[in-house]
Every structure is written in C-alpha cells, then in structure tokens.
C-alpha cells in the first residue's frame, strides 16, 4: 500500500459519479489485485451497491 517502495504501479478505485456528483476516489494507492477485489465485493446481481467503479493508475 504505500509503506513499501517497489517498481510495480499502484492503482486507485474510483466511484463514477453521475450528473450531479463527480468521480470520487474510494480506495487509493493499492495493487491491482486489491483494487479488483474491492470492486468484486461490491458488485453482483443481488448484493451489489448499485454504483459503478473503475480502476485507474495512481499518480504520485
């Protein structure tokens, strides 16, 4: 997460906003696996939270 330095890129999970709200970073500076896991836990036909997420590369 940001405590250890490595050459691997880190990513942010962004909740996509709508007409009235902008995009919001909900999880930052994590690995691709952590970002995908975050989205997978909130997605689903019956138990999803109804939001749309995207993964973007973290900028320092």
Can you give a write-up of this model?
With 60 residues, this protein is α+β, with helices and mostly antiparallel strands. The chain has one domain (11-57). 18% of the residues lie in helices and 28% in strands. It is built from one helix and three strands. It has one helix at 32-42; strands spanning 11-15, 24-30, 53-57. A three-stranded antiparallel beta sheet has the order 2-1-3, with helices on one face. A hairpin with an 8-residue loop joins strand 1 (11-15) and strand 2 (24-30). The longest helix is centred in the middle third of the chain and has 11 residues, at 32-42. It is flat, with a radius of gyration of 13 Å. The two termini are 13 Å apart. The mean pLDDT is 88.
Q: What's the tally of helices?
A: 1
Radius of gyration: 13 Å
Termini Cα gap: 13 Å
Round the mean pLDDT to the nearest integer and report it: 88
Indicate the low-confidence ranges by residue numbers. Answer: none
In what order do the strands lie side by side in the largest sheet?
2-1-3
Q: Percent helix among the residues?
A: 10-25%
Provide the number of structural domains.
1
SS class: alpha+beta
| Most strands sheet | 3 strands, antiparallel
Break the fold down into its secondary structure elements and pairings.
Blueprint: E1 11-15, E2 24-30, H1 32-42, E3 53-57
Antiparallel strand pairs: 1-2, 1-3
Tell me briefly what this model is:
The protein has about 60 residues and is an alpha+beta fold. It is built from one helix and three strands. The chain has one domain.
